[in-house]
Amino acid sequence: QVQLVESGGGLVQAGGSLRLSCTASGITFSSYRMAWFRQAPGKERELVARISASGMLPYYADSVKGRFTISRDNAKNMVYLQMNSLKPEDTAVYYCAGGTRPSSISRDYNYWGQGTQVTVSS
User: Fold this and answer.
1) Which of 33, 47, 94, 97 has the smallest CB count inside 10 Å?
2) Cα 63 from chain centroid?
């Protein structure tokens, strides 16, 4: 079965960095566009970044542009999110997602991880 497993979340002070990783199994990883979403308490799930199947054409939400970097390694079936200059408003559960459309909408993604908590203290 398909599994996406995130890791790398934690507690960090404002201005700090974290690197999230997502390992995929059960899918032809190199055929899927991958994305990171996040959901804060009481808020809707929102796209953070997405990347094409080939690893080109990354897209970022305005709120993270210049601070976060999405990348992937198709040989390892992994996608990453490097998060720098973290702010308290980045606090959320971060989810890895896989789909076939270049979309910013969560319902367009077929596969999801269980999420990893990122907490940024002020």
Assistant:
1) 47
2) 14
CA torsion 121-86-20-80 (nearest 10°) is 170
Q: Tell me, what's the pLDDT at 8?
A: 98
d(CA 85, CA 102): 27
Which helix (H) or strand (E) segment is 67 a member of? none
Beta strands at 10-13 and 116-121: parallel, antiparallel or unpaired: parallel
3-state secondary structure of 108: helix
**Torsional sign, CA 20, 93, 44, 77:** positive
CA dihedral defined by 109, 20, 94, 72, rounded to 10 degrees? -20
Q: How far apart (Å, rounded) are the C-alpha atoms in residues 19 and 11? A: 12
Q: What is the mean pLDDT of each run of 10 residues along the chain (122 residues)?
A: 96 98 96 97 97 94 98 98 98 97 95 98 96
Cα(3)–Cα(84) distance, integer angstroms: 27
Terminal C-alpha separation, the chain: 40
